[in-house]
Amino acid sequence: MTRPKVLISDKMDPNAARIFEERGCEVDVITGETPEQLKARIADYDGLAIRSSTKVTADILAGADNLKVIGRAGIGVDNVDIPAASSKGVVVMNTPFGNSITTAEHAIAMIFALARQIPQANERTQKGEWPKNDFMGIEVTGKTLGLIGAGNIGSIVAARAQGLRMKVIAYDPFLTPERAIEIGVEKVDLDTLLARADFITLHTPLTEETRNILSAENIAKTKKGVRIVNCARGGLIDEAALAEALDSGHVAGAALDVFQTEPAKESPLFGKPNFICTPHLGASTTEAQVNVALQVAEQMADYLVSGGVSNALNMPSLSAEEAPKLRPYMKLAENLGSLVGQLAHGNLTRISVEREGAAAELSGKPITGAVLAGLMRQYSDTVNMVNAPYLAKERGLDVREIRHDREGAYNTLLRVTVGTESGERSVAGTLFGTDAPRLVEIFGVRIEAELEGHMLYIVNEDAPGFIGRIGSLLGEAGINIGTFHLGRRQAGGEATLLLSVDAPIPPELVRQACALQGVKTVMPLEF
Ligand SMILES: NC(=O)C1=CN([C@@H]2O[C@H](COP(=O)(O)OP(=O)(O)OC[C@H]3O[C@@H](n4cnc5c(N)ncnc54)[C@H](O)[C@@H]3O)[C@@H](O)[C@H]2O)C=CC1
Ligand SMILES: O=C(O)CCC(=O)C(=O)O
């Protein structure tokens, strides 16, 4: 088996490369390349491990024909074009917890640095000025800290700030009242936070809702003398408006670890006496970098080697333990999707994927993803279980997942039903033993078959002589029949025939089969 190839394209703790190698991947560490260089190289790799410097754009992804996974050793994935990765079928993962404590500690360090103007005092003291009378600080004890965003990092900041005897209030529309009580913060609306906080610290991702959340208008609503910290993402604050508010003295101090444009080589904030900053160092501790490097390499290797998915942003999680159990179902699901896709005529408007028996115990999302991949493979060669749900959504396909508790005739069963303008059509399959996928029903007719290679589906009048006629037709064309499966609802009605053959059936032969006496449908199939 060829080893998956991984490229580490940003500076990362060496533990990442070690883990990739131990887990059977080939790994190259090539950092500091231009986008053009990365684009020229990326086609060789199955995995790309990054921090924040590498920008994974749609342009780079266009050439990433073997890429299966992008792993971000860190939290924010705003340097990855996730929609482009999804439509290319590339899983994007991050490491949501490995650097949270470190980043929360950086925010706390910024709060202290602002309260006591430590960087400014340090600079002047080292110049030999001994400016003892110029730096009157404030205590943080008893002050109100306003958290904008109370997720992983925000809640750690809250805990540390409570230890410092600060009163913590939080604005986060997704924070439940129960969670607010659990982390000991008062949940407030944004205007209340702006009006009450002595310190404001930001801990949200950058989204359309959070962009410029500290706009000129909102900065004007803050308490006079507020101090502002941003260790989350540049773009959350209007930097020009903040510079004005620092000049006017409305904002007493600001500390930024992140900037709207990075690397920030210039800024309206630079040089202001009440402004301090760090160059996106929030996650830069030995501990955090070891954590995220180990975690990203473990997660990516899991996916590349055994199909386990954790912390993916564009597909559901799947544990490395569950992945091998799911594998035969994925094959079955993909084949059933492909079968209905090839057989159902007309415009598909809806699809349901039902799981029964042992299949009902497994995660539904990957199975549905595999059905959709099989279904849509006719329209696109690059479709897989990652991008199939997105493509289905783009096409307006209504996708349902149904899990049955009932005991059926089979220990385990998947049923795929598609809706077209001419009605519903359904196929079903099971596993023989633990891992042999088998079709068991096709459009209401019981028929057992392995879906593999070149096949021919025929519906004909159930009358004597037909099998001989089709056998002769194929034999005369030099096409060998591998397997032969028959099913019917009742004698004398319609019979369904599913043949596997050793070569593709040419269109002319399909036409000749259609012309045989009693034939209603002939469809060549490929699996
Ligand atoms: N400076 C650095 O080096 C680092 C920065 N970060 C950044 O810190 C930020 C927070 O990270 P985590 O706490 O791990 O994320 P998280 O996802 O655990 O928490 C984010 C919180 O923001 C809240 N939120 C979302 N939209 C909001 C809105 N419109 N208004 C208020 N709250 C909103 C969410 O409900 C969530 O609770 C991310 O942007 C991440 O990229 C993370 C690590 C290092
Ligand atoms: O990798 C880094 O240094 C940046 C970390 C970061 O911003 C994140 O994890 O969101």
TrEMBL record:
The keyword Amino-acid biosynthesis applies. Residues 6-314 form the D-isomer specific 2-hydroxyacid dehydrogenase catalytic domain. Residues 325-442 form the D-3-phosphoglycerate dehydrogenase ASB domain. One of its GO terms (molecular function) is phosphoglycerate dehydrogenase activity. It catalyses: (R)-2-hydroxyglutarate + NAD(+) = 2-oxoglutarate + NADH + H(+); (2R)-3-phosphoglycerate + NAD(+) = 3-phosphooxypyruvate + NADH + H(+). InterPro entries: ACT-like_dom_sf (IPR045865), ACT_dom (IPR002912), ASB_dom_sf (IPR029009), D-isomer_2_OHA_DH_cat_dom (IPR006139), D-isomer_DH_CS (IPR029753), D-isomer_DH_NAD-bd (IPR006140), NAD(P)-bd_dom_sf (IPR036291), PGDH (IPR006236). This is D-3-phosphoglycerate dehydrogenase. The lineage of its organism: Bacteria, Pseudomonadati, Pseudomonadota, Alphaproteobacteria, Sphingomonadales. The gene is serA.
